[in-house]
TrEMBL record:
Domain Integrin alpha second immunoglobulin-like: 3-73
Name of the featured protein: ITA2B protein
Keyword Secreted belongs to the record: no
Domain Integrin alpha third immunoglobulin-like: 81-169
A GO term, aspect molecular function: integrin binding
Gene Ontology CC annotation, any one: integrin complex
Listed GO biological process terms: angiogenesis; cell adhesion mediated by integrin; cell-cell adhesion; cell-matrix adhesion; integrin-mediated signaling pathway
Membrane topology: Single-pass type I membrane protein
Record carries keyword Membrane: yes
Compartments, as annotated in UniProt: Membrane
Length: 170
């Protein structure tokens, strides 16, 4: 009939996190109650798609225990944003410019353009083991468009170098 807040106490028992709630004392025989619980659980990034709760109902007056297992699906959500810029932002080559094939001088292969990318987690959850695959157009109509000279990272990021990185050893 009425709503009451439960008094619950968290504790650890045999390596598990246990929450003990007192539902009422004394409670008459045949009493029916409904309990809605809201739990806040940290570290769900590694929950493998679900988290399982083992619920037990027991009376101090009876040795019997009613046990129920509840599995709740977990979906971790995080919004990722890729930011990028090129330095210089615009590059123009003369109309008759030709690449000097076989040359090892950088200026004979065009203007140096640096592309900087930043992957940003907008949350709400943290993320680990993120893979970003970035495709770069290297040729256009059989002619070199971008020559990949080097690849650098900052922080705890690792990158797999493309097999043709600085293929002409410029």
């Amino acid at each position: 009939q009425g709503q009451e807040k439960l008094s619950c106490n968290p504790r650890k028992e045999n390596g598990s996190h246990v929450v003990l709630c007192e539902l009422g004392n004394p409670m008459g025989g045949g009493t029916q109650i409904t309990v809605d619980m809201e739990l806040s659980v940290a570290g769900l990034e590694d929950a493998d798609g679900a988290i399982t709760f083992h619920l037990q109902l027991r009376s101090k007056n009876s040795p019997s225990i009613v046990a129920v297992t509840v599995t709740v699906p977990v979906e971790v959500q995080a919004e990722m944003e890729l930011r990028g810029k090129s330095l210089p932002a615009t590059t123009v080559l003369p109309a008759g410019w030709q690449e000097a094939r076989g040359s090892r001088r950088l200026e004979d292969h065009g203007v140096r353009v640096e592309h900087v990318y930043q992957l940003h987690n907008k949350g709400p959850a943290t993320v680990t083991n993120v893979t970003l695959r970035l495709g770069v157009p290297r040729e256009l109509h059989g002619r070199t468009l971008l020559y990949l000279l080097e690849l650098g990272t900052e922080g705890s990021v690792t990158c797999a170098e493309p097999p043709d990185l600085n293929a002409m050893q410029v």
